[in-house]
Amino acid sequence: MAEQIIANVLLVDDEEQFVSTLSQRLQTRGLKVDGVTSGEDALKKVKQKDFDAILLDLSMPGLDGMEVLHRIKADNPDIQVIILTGHASIEKGVEAIKDGAVDFLEKPVDMKVLLEKIGAAKRKHAIIVSKKSEDKVKSILEAKGW
Q: Is pTM beyond 0.85 here?
């Protein structure tokens, strides 16, 4: 049996039915999922809550996925963003990875593959948070002269 992932995930896609269905599928596997249907709402959510992984569609009205990726990474370069799109191209995938996405998956996505990618993002996020905490403690100790 595969290890269960416990992670906070933000799902961003303009298709409400897709957000609802994928959210339910991920929640039945133990993940905590916040779903939004616009880039603007995604940016608000990221400011309100810490996510282990963000699943981001590229093609959305208003702020598209690439613009959302740029804005999220500008504020939090360590955040783990997985592009999940039905409009994939090699060029877009390369561009997204260069701009900070950790992975690029096409819809329909295999649930096992998606869970593996979320698990990897969660582990990387945990390492980054741990390292930042260590650095902060070290800085405090050095400032106190201990």
A: yes
